[in-house]
Design brief:
By secondary structure, the protein is an alpha+beta fold. 17% of the residues lie in helices and 27% in strands. Strand 6 and strand 7 form a beta hairpin. 47% of the residues are buried.
């Protein structure tokens, strides 16, 4: 666990089904002699009648209720998974997102065996995984012993309370979707085992299921970047350079198969979005494909793509709503490289959790083994900090650009909001 020195700790006592009474909080009735104003979450007792509650079930099976009060303040109520008893810490990331860290995940997070973003309550809710909206939670598992493709599939299929999704054989990973109702069973199977510290660092070892790493399979969204009107393309065409003989893969929202600008340039298409065909129901993928290799047929030749002679491979990795899971995208990257793409265009982006997250590893591995050039959007959203995305020319060490620094330790100023510990009741009933 991060060093708690310098943070403000608060103990939350269990009342009924959830942790409702807060003790020793500065500035509140009953605080133990502390008079400084309290700027963290407001306890439920101070809630207004118009408060709204959003519940999220974590990968550990624990549940978090985020209560937003009429005045804009928030309180957090936490219940441990059924049959368990544990402490929790709540803290803020550099962008203000709320993290709830169960004590049985602390060592795994510290050793980087488990992705901290799995406990980013704000992001999970923002991505649509509140319990009212989704019964499942997508994660990516990795096996360090380099299993065969058949073994990788068999292991992912055997994980309890989980449905297998994309297999990422290149990096020994698999996407799975956890059934929230039985998330605690999944956590018991994959939870890393704490080992003696090495050189002062927290160490964990793979679980009995042989899972060595666990990431949040977070949402990634299409980036609507602006075309540059003058890049010298007409001069290149005049010299006979129009992309002929080059395979360009577009990994996006799919493509309009009937669009006159691109339909004759398509050589292969495939959808990696469960339940959706490659046909573009959002528009962004068709926009990107026509910008790259559009014939100009829709405009009488006026608006051609940059390389109208190139062959197009289109992989649908983002849904018709414009977003997709990391595992879908990684699956599409493997497909594009296997199809012999010279260039892979990925006009998309999303938060990155670490320098060695799954997307980074896939880019590194495929770039090194296939020679395919991955061109991935970066800094296409403004104003504000640049979005997390991969730079156009990835390097072996840092192919995934980052918009935020890692979440601070609890003793840093950025973690001032609501650093806390909580004790849950082992008898807390399981919320519906």
């Amino acid at each position: 666990m991060d060093n708690p020195r310098g943070t403000r700790f608060r103990r939350i006592a269990a009342v009924g089904a959830v942790l409702a009474a807060v003790a020793a909080l500065p500035g509140l009735t009953g605080a133990a002699g502390v008079s400084e104003p309290y700027t963290g979450p407001v306890p439920p007792a101070a809630s207004a009648d118009r408060a709204t509650t959003t519940r999220i079930t974590l990968v550990t099976g624990d549940t978090v209720d985020v209560v937003r009060h009429a005045g804009g303040s928030e309180s957090v109520q936490i219940a441990a998974a059924e049959g368990t008893s544990k402490h929790f810490r709540t803290m803020s990331g550099p962008d203000g997102d709320l993290y709830v860290i169960p004590e049985d995940a602390a060592d795994a997070i510290a050793s980087k065996a488990v992705d901290r973003e799995l406990f980013n309550v704000t992001r999970l809710i923002r991505d649509g995984y509140a319990d009212s909206r989704s019964d499942g939670l997508p994660v990516i598992v990795r096996y360090a012993d380099k299993p065969s493709d058949a073994t990788l599939k068999a292991r992912a299929d055997k994980l309890p309370a989980a449905d297998r999704g994309a297999l990422l054989e290149t990096v020994d990973m698999a996407g799975v979707k956890i059934d929230k109702h039985d998330a605690e069973q999944f956590w018991r199977a994959v939870k890393p085992v704490s080992a003696p510290p090495r050189h002062g660092r927290t160490v964990t070892e793979p679980s009995t299921s042989k899972v060595s790493r666990l990431w949040y399979d977070g949402k990634v969204k299409a980036s609507l970047d602006r075309s540059v009107p003058q890049i010298g393309a007409p001069e290149a065409w005049a010299k006979g350079v129009n992309g002929k003989g080059v395979k360009v893969a577009v990994l996006d929202t799919g493509v309009d198969l009937n669009n006159a600008d691109v339909k004759d340039r398509l050589t292969a298409t495939q959808s990696f979005v469960p339940g959706e065909l490659v046909q573009d129901g959002q528009g962004h993928g068709t926009h990107v494909a026509s910008t790259i290799a559009g014939s100009g047929a829709n405009s009488g030749g006026t608006y051609k793509g940059v390389a109208p002679g190139a062959d197009l491979l289109v992989g649908k990795v983002l849904s018709n709503a414009g977003s997709g899971d990391i595992s879908w995208i990684a699956n599409g990257m493997e497909w594009a490289a296997a199809q012999g793409a010279d260039v892979v265009s990925m006009s998309l982006g999303g938060p990155a959790s670490s320098p060695d997250d799954p997307m980074t590893q896939v880019v590194d591995r495929l770039s090194a083994t296939t020679g395919t050039l991955f061109v991935i959007a970066a800094a296409t959203a403004a104003p504000g900090p640049p979005p997390s995305a991969a730079p156009a020319r990835p390097t072996p060490r840092s192919p995934w650009a980052r918009s935020t620094s890692p979440m601070p330790s609890p003793d840093s100023p950025a973690a001032d909001r609501a650093s806390a510990t909580a004790r849950s009741s082992p008898k807390s009933p399981r919320p519906a």
